[in-house]
Design a protein that fits this description.
Length: about 140
Protein backbone atom coordinates (compact mmCIF):
# COMPACT_ATOMS: atom_id res chain seq x y z
CA UNK A 1 0.00 0.00 0.00
CA UNK A 2 1.29 3.48 -0.93
CA UNK A 3 1.70 5.94 1.93
CA UNK A 4 2.25 9.68 1.57
CA UNK A 5 5.55 10.85 3.04
CA UNK A 6 5.05 12.78 6.26
CA UNK A 7 4.81 16.55 5.95
CA UNK A 8 7.95 18.59 6.57
CA UNK A 9 7.26 21.83 8.45
CA UNK A 10 8.26 25.16 6.79
CA UNK A 11 9.63 26.67 10.01
CA UNK A 12 11.77 23.61 10.72
CA UNK A 13 13.08 23.62 7.11
CA UNK A 14 14.07 27.28 7.40
CA UNK A 15 15.75 26.69 10.77
CA UNK A 16 17.65 23.69 9.40
CA UNK A 17 18.78 25.64 6.33
CA UNK A 18 19.87 28.59 8.47
CA UNK A 19 21.89 26.24 10.70
CA UNK A 20 23.52 24.14 7.95
CA UNK A 21 23.81 26.81 5.22
CA UNK A 22 23.82 30.20 7.00
CA UNK A 23 24.71 32.11 3.84
CA UNK A 24 21.43 31.23 2.12
CA UNK A 25 18.91 34.05 1.80
CA UNK A 26 16.31 31.77 0.20
CA UNK A 27 13.34 31.05 2.46
CA UNK A 28 11.02 28.08 2.14
CA UNK A 29 7.46 29.40 1.92
CA UNK A 30 5.57 26.18 1.20
CA UNK A 31 6.27 22.48 1.16
CA UNK A 32 4.42 19.25 0.47
CA UNK A 33 5.12 15.78 -0.92
CA UNK A 34 4.86 17.00 -4.53
CA UNK A 35 5.80 20.70 -4.41
CA UNK A 36 7.84 23.37 -2.64
CA UNK A 37 7.90 27.16 -2.87
CA UNK A 38 10.71 29.55 -2.06
CA UNK A 39 11.22 33.31 -1.88
CA UNK A 40 14.32 35.48 -2.06
CA UNK A 41 14.13 39.17 -1.16
CA UNK A 42 16.39 40.87 -3.67
CA UNK A 43 18.96 43.53 -2.94
CA UNK A 44 21.22 45.82 -4.95
CA UNK A 45 23.72 43.01 -5.63
CA UNK A 46 20.97 40.96 -7.34
CA UNK A 47 19.87 43.65 -9.80
CA UNK A 48 21.38 44.43 -13.18
CA UNK A 49 21.11 47.72 -15.11
CA UNK A 50 17.51 48.42 -16.07
CA UNK A 51 16.28 47.02 -12.76
CA UNK A 52 16.36 43.40 -13.96
CA UNK A 53 16.98 40.66 -11.40
CA UNK A 54 20.07 38.82 -12.61
CA UNK A 55 20.03 35.36 -14.17
CA UNK A 56 22.29 33.85 -11.48
CA UNK A 57 19.87 35.10 -8.81
CA UNK A 58 16.94 33.47 -10.63
CA UNK A 59 18.96 30.27 -11.01
CA UNK A 60 19.70 30.32 -7.28
CA UNK A 61 16.06 30.57 -6.20
CA UNK A 62 15.10 27.79 -8.65
CA UNK A 63 17.83 25.56 -7.18
CA UNK A 64 16.70 26.38 -3.64
CA UNK A 65 13.06 25.50 -4.37
CA UNK A 66 14.18 22.21 -5.92
CA UNK A 67 16.29 21.42 -2.82
CA UNK A 68 13.25 22.07 -0.59
CA UNK A 69 11.20 19.82 -2.87
CA UNK A 70 13.61 16.98 -2.04
CA UNK A 71 12.70 17.32 1.65
CA UNK A 72 8.99 17.23 0.92
CA UNK A 73 9.23 14.33 -1.52
CA UNK A 74 11.30 12.25 0.89
CA UNK A 75 9.41 13.36 3.99
CA UNK A 76 12.72 14.04 5.74
CA UNK A 77 15.70 16.35 5.61
CA UNK A 78 18.52 15.32 3.33
CA UNK A 79 21.03 18.15 3.67
CA UNK A 80 23.59 16.31 1.52
CA UNK A 81 21.28 15.96 -1.48
CA UNK A 82 23.22 17.62 -4.30
CA UNK A 83 22.29 19.25 -7.57
CA UNK A 84 23.08 16.76 -10.32
CA UNK A 85 21.86 18.95 -13.15
CA UNK A 86 19.74 22.06 -13.53
CA UNK A 87 18.80 23.84 -16.73
CA UNK A 88 16.94 27.11 -16.96
CA UNK A 89 15.15 29.02 -19.70
CA UNK A 90 14.71 32.76 -19.23
CA UNK A 91 11.37 33.93 -20.61
CA UNK A 92 11.21 37.63 -19.76
CA UNK A 93 12.92 40.11 -17.44
CA UNK A 94 12.26 39.71 -13.73
CA UNK A 95 11.67 43.09 -12.12
CA UNK A 96 10.75 43.49 -8.47
CA UNK A 97 11.88 43.16 -4.88
CA UNK A 98 10.95 39.52 -4.27
CA UNK A 99 11.83 36.54 -6.42
CA UNK A 100 9.61 33.46 -6.05
CA UNK A 101 9.88 29.88 -7.26
CA UNK A 102 7.57 26.87 -7.22
CA UNK A 103 9.06 23.41 -7.73
CA UNK A 104 6.79 20.56 -8.84
CA UNK A 105 7.79 16.92 -8.46
CA UNK A 106 8.22 14.85 -11.62
CA UNK A 107 9.60 11.72 -9.95
CA UNK A 108 11.35 10.62 -6.79
CA UNK A 109 13.41 7.45 -6.64
CA UNK A 110 15.95 5.79 -4.40
CA UNK A 111 18.85 7.83 -5.80
CA UNK A 112 17.35 11.00 -7.27
CA UNK A 113 14.53 13.52 -7.25
CA UNK A 114 13.51 15.28 -10.48
CA UNK A 115 11.35 18.37 -10.71
CA UNK A 116 10.35 21.43 -12.69
CA UNK A 117 10.49 24.98 -11.34
CA UNK A 118 8.66 28.16 -12.29
CA UNK A 119 10.27 31.48 -11.28
CA UNK A 120 8.56 34.89 -11.09
CA UNK A 121 9.08 38.32 -9.54
CA UNK A 122 6.84 39.86 -6.88
CA UNK A 123 3.21 38.69 -7.16
CA UNK A 124 3.23 38.05 -10.92
CA UNK A 125 2.92 34.24 -10.75
CA UNK A 126 0.96 34.34 -14.02
CA UNK A 127 3.99 35.92 -15.75
CA UNK A 128 6.97 33.65 -15.11
CA UNK A 129 10.42 35.05 -15.78
CA UNK A 130 12.05 31.62 -16.04
CA UNK A 131 11.36 27.89 -16.03
CA UNK A 132 13.85 25.27 -14.96
CA UNK A 133 14.15 21.52 -14.71
CA UNK A 134 16.61 19.70 -12.54
CA UNK A 135 17.71 16.59 -10.70
CA UNK A 136 18.99 16.20 -7.18
CA UNK A 137 21.05 13.13 -6.39
CA UNK A 138 20.67 11.54 -2.97
CA UNK A 139 23.62 10.29 -0.90
CA UNK A 140 24.29 6.57 -0.67
CA UNK A 141 22.82 4.96 2.44
CA UNK A 142 25.32 4.64 5.26
Amino acid sequence: MYAEPPAVDIDVVNAMVHETFPGSRIRCTGIGPDHATATLLTGPDDVRPGGYISGPTQFSVADGALWYLVFGALGRFEAMALTSELSIRFLRPAIGTALNARAELATAGRRSVVGSVTVWADAAADRPSAIAQGTYVLPLPA
